[in-house]
Write a structure and sequence with these properties.
Blueprint: E1 3-9, H1 12-22, E2 30-36, E3 55-62, H2 63-66, H3 70-89, E4 94-96, E5 100-103, E6 106-118, E7 121-131, H4 147-151, H5 157-171, H6 175-180, E8 192-197, E9 200-209, E10 215-219, E11 224-227, E12 232-235
Parallel strand pairs: 1-2
Antiparallel strand pairs: 2-3, 3-7, 4-5, 5-6, 6-7, 8-9, 8-12, 9-10, 10-11
Helix pairs in contact: 3-5
EC number: 6.3.4.15
GO molecular function, one term: biotin--[biotin carboxyl-carrier protein] ligase activity
Protein name: Biotin-protein ligase
Length: 236
């Protein structure tokens, strides 16, 4: 298991991408940083994390080892993280489509997946994860929570990281099961919520996710919709 530990970097995704360009890296090579100055979320959003309190790391996925589509990668990683939280820490978490992990209706982790292609073939993915671990306070606007706030316990960051990467390595052999289990972990599946869709307020029920990763909704007036992240805003 190849884990590179850094005190500081702009973004672990950027750091791993730079190292990948310069040399051959093995499947699940991981870069973890004590501090990120420009941690990234989805669509350029900034990831907020107190230095030394949380896990901010990225790992390389060699797609020749798993042969997945971009959304299958998302499914595998999100389900693996939720399953690991339950099996190893006793924490019930859910996947808030498309890339957030929630516990008790608050954001516990975020995932950013950046794909690498050779021609039309997806060869690798750089998977960044921010997991709130020992942080005690968050801005109200983030609606976030940490493992410590949930359990009252302090966690060793190195031990958590090693445990998760090891779990992910083992889950390599059960990828289909993890992917098929995605909907059972989907936040608010079957629930009717208020959204803003294409800048218009709607009330709709979450009914699933398409194979391409679009959220499936059924409105209160029986209209079937699919939406990507740019088209839809949650109210939860």
């Amino acid at each position: 298991m190849n884990i590179v530990k850094l005190y500081a970097t702009t973004s672990t995704n950027d750091e791993l991408r730079s190292r990948f360009r310069e040399s051959e890296l093995t499947h699940l090579t991981t870069v973890v940083a004590y501090k990120q100055s420009a941690g990234k979320g989805q669509h350029g959003a900034k990831w907020h994390s107190e230095p030394g309190k949380n896990l901010t790391f990225s790992f390389l996925l060699d797609n020749s080892k798993v042969c997945l589509t971009p959304f299958q990668i998302n499914k595998w990683i999100t389900v693996s993280l939720v399953s690991w939280l339950k099996n190893h820490l006793g924490i019930k978490a859910e996947i808030k489509w498309p890339n957030d992990i929630l516990a008790v209706n608050h954001k516990l982790a975020g995932i950013l997946i950046e794909t690498v292609y050779s021609g039309s073939s997806l060869t690798h993915a750089i998977v960044g994860i921010g997991l709130n671990v020992n942080q005690d306070e968050f801005p109200d606007s983030l609606k976030a929570i940490s493992l410590k706030l949930i359990t009252g316990k302090q966690f060793n960051l190195d031990e958590l990281l090693f445990s998760f990467i090891q779990y992910l390595n083992v889950s390599n052999y059960e990828i289909k099961e993890f992917i098929n289990d995605y909907n059972s972990h989907l936040y608010k599946l079957g629930r009717t919520l208020n959204f803003k869709y294409l800048d218009k307020p709607i009330t709709a029920t979450i009914i699933g996710v398409t194979e391409n990763g679009l959220l499936e909704l059924m409105t209160t007036d029986s209209q079937y919709l699919t939406a990507d992240l740019k088209e839809l805003k949650w109210f939860y």
